[in-house]
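Hi R.,

Quick one: here's the Gustatory receptor sequence you asked about.
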Amino acid sequence: MFETSRDIRPYLARQILRATLYGSWLFGLFPFTVDSRKRICQLRRSCGLIVYGLVANYIHLFILIRLAFEFKKQKLEAFVRSPVLEIINIIIALINTLSGILIHFMNFWGSRKVEEICNKLLTLEYQDFKSLNGRNCPNFSCFLIQKFLTKLGQLLSFFTLIYAIPGNEYPLHLVLLSFLMGVTLNLNTMHYHIGVLLIYRYIWLLNGQLKVLVSQLKRNPGADFTSIHQLLSLYNRLLELYKKLAIAYQYQVILLITSQLAGNIVVIYFLIVYGISMHNFSVFLVVFPQSLLINIWDFWLFITVCDLTEKAGDETAIILKIFSYLEHRDDRLETSVNEFAWLCSHRKFRFQLCGLFCINYKMGFKMIITTFLYLVYLVQFDYMNL
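And here's the predicted structure, written out as tokens:
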């Protein structure tokens, strides 16, 4: 049974990658065509796809905003009980709409950077790591599948929340347009998540090659070690690529994390108002903790992937220390290892946002704690209405 599970994960990961690619083309989020005339397939920006993406997504947003204003007069019972909840809900809706507008603009504005990143990833996949493509990286498949499942869970939670809240009578076409907006934002999230995972996979493969080289030199001190120069070059290229990936998607990440954490606040606040203030102990209340858990799981997956990539880079430095224990070391090997170790110690795989903070476990805990502190402040502020 466990062998079957291991075999099916890479297959599912490939299908998710295909679904993300075709979905991004369909919604105008990936304005590139494949140029297969070269030895290694490369991507090229398509003016037609760029125009299609901008026009289709902005028309979609315009229609959604217009319909939302038409039905804004509808007021839930929870909003009557707690005006603060209504204000928070409106603010978060504005944040989500603004995020959609800016993210679609950035897809156009930063398309040249994304094109460069994708082409370098393709070169790594089909040239530098071509001989190692058969190796299965368990964490790559596992985290990609988990991310896809959380995105499906968020979309299902959206429908459940819409139809489970008492008095919520939004028309079907408005719900479907909001759902499509959620799909486009989730696809954007998948883009940088896949980019980070691919770079992690290449570091994992590179570490594997370093371990093989150490084993060979232990058995035979006179073995060829020139491959370490190639590995050093690859490591340096991966560092540059990771930095470019963080710069290309830093504003999208900030907007999506902000809207996600703010959404967690309003979900908990809905639960407090319905469950504690209104004493509405019905089955539909289960929807709120379910949605909250899925959002936290999705948020923590990205934190985990960034932290995992950073630790994979740290593991490279640990593997390099093993070279110092080898007997009969060559001076050229020692020079190469020292240069490699210096690079590992001075440059790290850190997903840094706007040069201010890095995405890792420590920062993830701080974000979650800050979210709950804001919730406590709001409850204290609106205590008399609860």
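The two ends are 51 Å apart (CA to CA).

Cheers,
M.
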